[in-house]
C-alpha cells in the first residue's frame, strides 16, 4: 500500500479530479491521499459550477498529509488559480528541501474534456515558473502544450508527429525533467512513424504487433485500423524521444482521461518503475479504461477504472479467521455438511446403540475405500512439483497402508476374517466416492484434489471432536465408557488423527492464500467439496440401509420358504 | 459498475470521508460519485482544520450528480452543520419525490475517531427531523446513539447488550426504516448472548463457529478470544432484532471505520442484497479491513480497503487487443519466441537452401512427435467437462491421425520408406518435448495443457505467415516458387492450418477471459509457454545439428579407415 498524494480539484460526478485519481490509486494497490484545490459541480455533460478552496486551506491540507503520511509520489491536477498554484508550489518546495525529493507528476490541467476552463489564465506562468522546476514529468495534451509554448513565445502549432517531437523538446526547456506530450487527438500515419526513426528516437508499439506476431495481427484483423494510430511522445532528461503508438479509439467515455493517466504514472513512479515502462503501463491502463467503459451519464462518460482488478473470493487469513477457505466451504454446503457429520449412523454410534451389522458393513467397505484414498494421495504426489508436497502426500499413503493391517486386526476382533474382508464386493456408494476422488485427481490440478480429499479428512475429525465434546456434557446422550465403538471414537477424536486434521487445514489454507482462486476456480472447489460431502453422507446411508434391506430380503426369503 | 453516491466530508489523509467511501465503492465494483459538504485538513493524528462548503454549492453538486448519473444508492456521512444538513435533506426529498426512492444509508457522523466534533450540535435535530424519515438505515455508534437518544429525552445510557437492543428499537421510532447500532466499543459475553435469545431475536456469528465447526474452533485456538466479543445490533422495520457477533480486534487502524461500513452497506443495498445479509457482508469487509491494515501515519491509521480485490493479470479482451493472453505470453518470452519462429532452419527452408538431410531428419522426428501431440489432445479431451471441448480436442486427434498417413506419403516422395519412418528412433529433443506435453497434461488442469499445446500450433502458424509475407516483398530472400519445401510453406501458411491457429487463439483467449488467472497461475502458464517455446527451438536445433554431427562422425570414420 504505497502512499500516493493527489493535489487537484474535486469532480462531484466521480469521473475526473481527485475521484479519478483515488480510484486509480486504489486499483493500482496504492494508498491514496488527496488535497482539494477546488470543488466542481460537474457531470458528464459539463461543469456547472466551480468553487475555489482558499489557498491557506490548501496549505493546511498539504501539511496535514505531508507531515504524517509517508507519501512516495505526488501528482498535481487542476490547481484553479495563481494563488493556489503558488501555495502548492511553496509547500512542495519546502517539503522537498527538508525531506528530500519524491517523484512529482504535474498534469497542467487548463481545460476540461467538455471545454470548461479549469485554470485562470494568469496562473499559467506560475505553473511554468514554480511547479515545472520541481516536476519529474509534465503531461500536457495538445491544447495545453500549445498554450504553454505560446505563453513563452515558442512556435506553438502542433499538427503532426514532427511538431509533437519538437514541442516535447521545447517544453522540457521550461523546467521539468521530462515531458509526456499526449497525442490522443492527433492521428498519425505509419509513413510518418517510419520517417521519424533516428538514433535518439525509439518507437514502442504497446500491442506488440511489430515483430513476430503476424498471427495476432492477421487473425485479429487489425489491418483495418492501421491508419488510425495515435501517439504519446516522451522526451526525457537526455533529450531522448520515445514514441508510444497505439490504435485510436472511437469513444465518448473519455471524461477524466488525463487525470487517470497522470494518477497511474504517479503510482508507477512511486514504486520505482523506470519512466519509459511507467508510461507504457499507465497509457495501457488508461487505454483499456476507455475501451472497456460502460456508458454512465448523458455526455462524455467516465473510464472504467476497475478493469485491472478482480474480486478476491477467499478472504485473507487473519488471526480471528485463520481458516477462511474452510469456513467458506462449510458455509456454502452448510446443510449437507450437517447431514454428514451428524448422520444417524454417527448418532447411533455415539449412543452405543448402532447395530453391529451396520458397523461391520461400514468397516468392511471402509477397508476398500481406503485403497482409493491411498491411491488418490499417491496421485497427488505424482501431480506435485516440489519435494515437500510429494513427501507430505506419500506420508499419508504410507500411513493408510500401515493402518490397513491394523484395520484387519480390528476387523478380526469383530469376527471378520481376512478372506471375508478382502473378498467383500464394493457397494456402489463406495465405488462412486472412491472413483470420484481418482477422477477429480485426473481432471484437475493438485489443489482440486486437495479439496476433494479434505471432506473425508476434516469430516471424520469434526465427528470425533463433536462426539467427544458432547460426551463431556452432564447427562450426555453420548455413551463414552463402555461404548462398543469406543475405540473408533477415541481414534478420530485423538491426538494423532487431529494432528492430521490440523495439517490438512494448513495445506488447504496456505495453498488458497498463496494462490487466491478466481470466481470460476472457487466455484469448482465448492462443487467438489459439496459432492464429496454428499458422497460421505451416501457412505453412511449405505452403512445404515444396506444391512436393513439385506435383512428384509432374508426375512422375505424365510417367509416365502416357510 | 452500479453508481453509488456519497454525501460527506473530505478527509485529506484519505482514510475516512468521501475518500474511504470512494475506495470502498471501487473495490466493491461500484461506480462512486461524491458530494462534498466540508473539507478537512486531517491526518491519522487528528483533525487540524475544517472548512464548510456553502449550502448552495452542496446543492449544486447534488443536482449535477442526481440529474445525470443513475445513482442506485446513497450514503450520507459528515454533514457539517444545520444548513448543509437541510440542503442535503431538501434535495434528496425532491429527488425521491420526482424520481422514486432509492436506498439511503445515513451515518449520523458527529465525532471523529480522534475525538474531533464533526457536526454542529444544533444540526442533530435537523438530521433526526429531516434525514431520518428518508433513510432506509441509520448506522450510529454508541456515542452517536446516546447523543441522538438524549436529544429526544429517551434513556440514553448504553452499557450492555440489552441496552443496545433497547436503544436500537428506540432509535427506529425516530423515523428511519432500520437501525444498525454499532457496538465496536462494547464487549459482550457469551452469557449475555445466551440470555438474549427470543423469538424476535436472531444471533449471527459471521465466523460460523457456532455449528458443526469444532475443527475450526479448536485448531484455530479461538477459545482464548471467547470473551472478547463485540456485536452490532440491527433493528428492522418489523422491530425484529439481529445481533451480529464477531471477535473484538485490538488495533489502532480504525480511522474511517464508520465511513467504510456505511459505504459498503450502500454498495450492497444498491445491488439489492437483503438488509441482514448486507450488514453481514459489510461488517465482514470492514472487520477484515481493520485486521489486515498496514500501519500508515503516526496515529489512528486507515483500514486496508484493498483486501477484497486482486490484480487482474491478463487484460480484458477488447476490439484493439482481442488476444491479450497470447500477447502477454509472447511479450514474456519475446527473445526465445523469436529464436524459435525465425530459427536458422526456418530461414534456410524459406531460402530453399536447407540441406535435404536436415529436412528429412526433421520430418522423420516430426512423425513421432505428432503421436505425442495426438495423445496430449486425447488427454485434454479426457480432462474436459463438457461435450464441446471434448469434441474439439478429439477433432484435433482425428486430424493428426489422418495427417499421419499423408505424412507417410509425403515422406515417400522424399524416398523414406514406411519401415524407415516407423523404425526411426526418437531423438532426445523430441522425447523431451513430447513427454513434457504429456507430463504437463497429467500434472495440471486442462487450461495448463491448452497453453502447452499452443506453442506448437501458434508457432508453426507464425512461421507460415512470416515466410509468406516475406516472400511477397520485392527481391525477397524467400524463394517461394520452385522452393523444394514449397508444400511445407503452403501447408502452414494456408487456410486450413490458419483456421486451426485462429481456433486455438480463440480457445486460449476465451478460457483466460472466462477464468482470469491469479498471479501464480499466470506465472505457471508463462513458464509452460516458455518451456514449450524452448523445446520447439530445441527441435529445430536437433534438425540442424544431428545430421551435421552424423556427417562429421562419418567423415572421421572414413578418415580413420583410409
Q: Mind telling me the C-alpha Rg of chain A?
A: 35 Å
Looking at how many chains there are and whether they match, the oligomeric state comes to homodimer
Low-confidence stretches of chain A: none
Main beta-sheet strand count, sense and barrel state of chain A:
6 strands, mixed
Largest sheet, spatial ordering of strands of chain A: 3-2-1-4-5-6
Quickly count the helices of chain A: 21
Secondary structure: number of strands of chain A: 11
Class by alpha and beta content of chain A: alpha/beta
Distance between the termini of chain A: 83 Å
Rounded average pLDDT of chain A: 93
Domain Pyridoxamine kinase/Phosphomethylpyrimidine kinase (chains A, B): 11-201
InterPro entries (chains A, B): Haem_Oase-like_multi-hlx, HMP/HMP-P_kinase_dom, PM/HMP-P_kinase-1, Ribokinase-like, Thiaminase-2/PQQC
GO molecular function (chains A, B): hydroxymethylpyrimidine kinase activity; phosphomethylpyrimidine kinase activity
Organism (chains A, B): Suillus placidus
Amino acid at each position: 500500500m504505497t502512499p500516493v498524494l493527489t493535489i487537484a480539484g474535486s469532480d462531484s460526478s466521480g469521473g475526473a479530479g481527485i475521484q479519478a485519481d483515488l480510484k486509480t490509486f486504489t486499483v493500482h494497490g496504492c494508498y491514496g491521499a488527496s488535497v482539494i484545490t477546488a470543488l466542481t459541480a460537474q457531470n458528464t455533460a459539463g461543469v456547472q459550477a466551480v468553487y475555489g478552496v482558499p489557498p491557506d486551506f490548501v496549505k493546511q491540507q498539504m501539511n496535514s498529509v505531508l507531515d504524517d503520511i509517508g507519501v512516495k509520489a505526488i501528482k498535481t491536477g487542476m490547481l484553479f488559480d495563481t494563488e493556489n498554484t503558488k501555495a502548492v508550489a511553496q509547500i512542495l518546495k519546502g517539503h522537498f528541501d527538508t525531506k528530500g525529493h519524491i517523484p512529482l507528476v504535474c498534469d497542467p490541467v487548463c481545460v476540461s474534456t467538455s471545454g470548461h476552463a479549469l485554470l485562470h489564465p494568469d496562473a499559467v506562468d506560475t505553473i511554468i515558473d514554480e511547479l515545472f522546476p520541481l516536476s519529474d514529468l509534465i503531461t500536457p495534451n495538445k491544447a495545453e502544450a500549445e498554450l504553454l509554448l505560446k505563453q513563452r513565445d515558442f512556435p506553438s502549432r502542433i499538427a503532426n508527429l514532427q511538431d509533437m517531437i519538437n514541442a516535447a523538446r521545447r517544453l522540457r526547456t521550461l523546467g521539468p525533467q521530462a515531458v509526456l506530450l499526449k497525442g490522443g487527438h492527433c492521428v498519425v500515419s505509419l509513413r510518418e512513424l517510419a520517417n521519424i526513426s533516428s538514433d535518439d528516437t525509439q518507437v514502442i508499439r504497446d500491442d506488440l504487433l511489430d515483430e513476430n506476431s503476424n498471427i495476432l495481427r492477421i487473425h485479429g484483423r487489425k489491418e483495418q485500423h492501421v491508419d488510425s494510430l495515435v501517439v504519446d511522445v516522451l522526451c526525457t532528461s537526455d533529450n531522448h524521444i520515445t514514441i508510444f503508438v497505439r490504435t485510436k479509439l472511437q469513444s465518448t467515455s473519455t471524461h477524466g482521461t488525463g487525470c487517470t493517466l497522470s494518477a497511474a504514472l504517479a503510482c508507477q513512479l512511486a514504486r520505482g518503475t523506470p519512466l519509459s515502462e511507467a508510461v507504457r503501463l499507465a497509457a495501457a491502463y488508461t487505454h483499456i479504461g476507455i475501451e472497456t467503459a460502460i456508458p454512465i451519464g448523458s455526455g462524455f462518460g467516465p473510464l472504467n477504472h476497475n478493469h485491472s482488478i478482480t474480486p478476491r473470493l477467499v478472504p485473507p487469513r487473519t488471526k480471528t479467521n485463520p481458516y477462511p477457505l474452510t469456513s467458506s466451504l462449510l458455509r456454502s454446503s452448510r446443510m449437507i455438511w450437517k447431514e454428514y457429520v451428524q448422520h444417524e449412523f454417527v448418532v447411533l454410534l455415539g449412543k452405543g446403540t448402532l447395530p453391529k451389522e451396520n458397523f461391520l458393513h461400514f468397516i468392511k467397505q471402509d477397508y476398500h475405500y481406503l485403497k482409493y484414498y491411498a491411491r488418490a494421495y499417491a496421485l497427488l504426489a505424482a501431480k506435485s512439483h516440489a519435494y515437500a508436497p510429494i513427501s507430505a502426500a506419500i506420508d499419508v499413503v504410507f500411513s493408510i497402508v500401515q493402518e490397513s493391517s491394523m484395520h484387519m486386526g480390528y476387523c478380526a476382533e469383530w469376527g471378520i476374517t481376512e478372506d471375508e474382508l478382502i473378498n467383500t464386493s464394493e457397494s456402489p456408494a463406495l465405488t462412486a466416492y472412491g472413483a470420484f476422488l481418482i477422477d477429480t485427481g485426473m481432471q484437475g490440478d493438485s489443489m482440486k484434489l486437495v479439496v476433494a480429499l479434505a471432506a473425508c479428512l476434516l469430516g471424520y475429525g469434526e465427528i470425533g471432536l463433536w462426539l467427544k465434546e458432547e460426551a463431556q456434557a452432564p447427562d450426555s446422550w453420548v455413551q463414552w465408557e463402555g461404548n462398543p465403538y469406543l475405540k473408533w471414537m477415541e481414534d478420530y477424536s485423538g491426538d494423532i488423527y487431529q494432528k492430521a486434521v490440523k495439517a490438512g487445514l494448513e495445506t488447504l489454507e496456505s495453498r488458497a492464500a498463496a494462490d487466491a482462486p478466481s470466481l470460476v476456480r472457487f466455484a469448482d472447489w465448492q462443487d467438489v467439496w459439496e459432492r464429496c460431502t454428499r458422497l460421505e453422507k451416501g457412505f453412511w446411508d449405505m452403512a445404515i440401509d444396506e444391512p436393513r434391506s439385506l435383512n428384509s430380503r432374508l426375512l422375505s426369503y424365510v417367509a416365502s420358504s416357510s
